[in-house]
Design a protein that fits this description.
- One of its GO terms (cellular component) is cytoplasm.
- It is a single chain.
- This protein has 11 helices and 10 strands.
- The strands form 2 sheets. Strands 3-2-1-4-5 form a 5-stranded mixed β-sheet, with helices on both faces. A 5-stranded mixed β-sheet has the order 8-7-6-9-10, sandwiched between helices.
- Helix 5 packs across helix 6.
- Bound molecules: adenosine-5'-triphosphate, magnesium ion and fe (iii) ion.
Amino acid sequence: SLILGLESSCDETAAALVTSDRRILAHKLAGQEEAHRPFGGVVPEIAARAHVERMTPLVEAALAEAGISLRQVDAIAATAGPGLIGGVMVGLVTAKALAHAAGKPLIALNHLEGHALSPRLADPDLEFPYLLLLVSGGHCQLLLVEGVGTYRRLATTIDDAAGEAFDKTAKLLGLGFPGGPAVERAALLGDPGAVPLPRPLVGSAEPHFSFAGLKSAVLRARDAGIHRPEDIAASFQQAVIDCLIDRTARAIGRAPQATALVMAGGVAANTPIRAAIEGLAARNGLRFVAPPLWLCTDNGAMIAWAGAERFAAGLFDGLDAPARPRWPLDPTAEKARGAGV
Ligand code: ATP
Ligand code: MG
Ligand code: FE
């Protein structure tokens, strides 16, 4: 099958054409860094307007690049949440209009399912079930991915997401926006042992993550005025690595059925974090799979691919599918200490 996938849940507008045999026929993406940089973070109204301006031209460019007409597409997939509601509605409404006009089925996707299945686009040998460390701008979770549509959440963050911690740290240190890559670059020039920072919940009997205390400690280290920003960045990144390793190691012990340890989401584009999780997989005799860097941060190909997976499973949605600002991947998971999903 051939699926058109649209993404617009945050600050990337994207459209891609992907086949069920993993061929990426086109993959178009427009970021909005310049528009949001003056504000040091994503401004929802600016994002929604940019999605409106860019989505249709990107769809046309993707179809043109692939030499495909809409009639040759088997289904149209779009992120329907979770995310910034104005942006989500742009992609979802565009997909509905195209599906209606071309008489094609609609697949209203959970953005997190896009991240969760993206490693299978990258690696044809990755089988269910696998243990997934999903680390992104809005989420930090450990999930047992049992099959398409079956995600068992083992852990989540009780406060900030991992990517959020990177973004806040970058802002505190004046490293710029977007924060993750800026912190990673600064950390290359710093000493990871220079600044003592906490490792929240490491060694804890509970399964969850926490990053808010780490961010506060970064603020205090900055205000102390005795450390170089590069040393704070490197020490912060090392603390995140130690937290991710400890929590993931705990989950490995509780998911003996997993065939592989897998990473996805924007923070999985961080090279030292990838290397650390790869090492953890090796120590536990598990295969390690992570998508290429461009497939970790938001993109249309992961949405088209998740659409292909749902298409194969016969999972479609009606044109009345709602846009959902909040949408847990595992609705049965109890909320961690009242935190969001
Ligand atoms: P979600 O997927 O939870 O809805 P999102 O879509 O905004 O959130 P992604 O696009 O998956 O998030 O990832 C963006 C996040 O990844 C940002 O917080 C960004 O700082 C972080 N990130 C990107 N590259 C890196 C990197 N090299 N190192 C660390 N963090 C990174
Ligand atoms: Mg982004
Ligand atoms: Fe994302």
